[in-house]
Amino acid sequence: MVAHHFILSCMQNYVATCSTWYWVLTVLQLALPVGVSMYQAAGLVQGKRALSSRANNQTSPKAHQILVYCLFGVTAGVLAGLLGVGGGVVMGPLFLELGIHPQVSSATGSFAMMFSSSMAAMEYYLLKRFPVPYALFFTSLTFVAAIVGQRVARKLVNWLGRASFIIFILSSMIFVSAISLDAKLNHMARR
What we know:
Strand content: under 5%
Number of helices: 7
Helix content: over 70%
Organism: Triticum turgidum subsp. durum (Durum wheat)
Distance between the termini: 40 Å
Membrane topology: Multi-pass membrane protein
Number of domains: 2
Number of strands: 0
Pfam families: TauE (PF01925)
Radius of gyration: 19 Å
Structural class: mainly alpha
Subcellular location: Membrane
Order of helices and strands: HHHHHHH
Transmembrane segments: 20-45, 66-95, 134-153, 159-181
Shape: globular
Largest sheet: none
C-alpha cells in the first residue's frame, strides 16, 4: 500500500496541477486505503478478526463502532495533512480515547509517522530537494534517541509498575507541539 501511494504521489509531480490526470491520480491514491479499510472492517464485523490491542477485552466491535473508528482515522489524516504533522501525533490521543493500551497507542502512532515521513523524504530526494548530509545526521540522531527513549520507557514501566506515564508524555508532546505551531503561525501571519 505504501509503494502504491508513493508511486502515485511521484506521478502527480509530473502532471499539471488540477488537471484531469492530477485528480485521477488523487482518487487512485484513495482507492486502495478505502478498499483495505472496508475489507478489514468487514472481517471485524463478521468476527473473522479481533482487536487484540484493546485494553478491555471486548467482543468484536459493532458496525457503528467501526464506522466511528474509520471517521476518527479520516479526521486524523485530514488534520495531520492540514497542520503538517505526522498522523501519529493526532492518532495517539484518539487511540487512547478508543480504549487502546497506551503502549500500543504510542507504538502505532510512531509507526504511522515513520511511513509519512519516509515517503516525504523519498519524494524530496527524487525531486532533488533533499540535503543528504543533514538527513544522515538527523537519521542517526533520531535512531539513537529512539533506542535510548525505548530503554528508559521500559525501565520506567518496570520501576513504576504502570504505563500511565506514557499518556502523560503523549499529552505533553501534543501540548508542546500545539504551542510551537501557534507560535509559528503567529510569526508567519506577521510577515
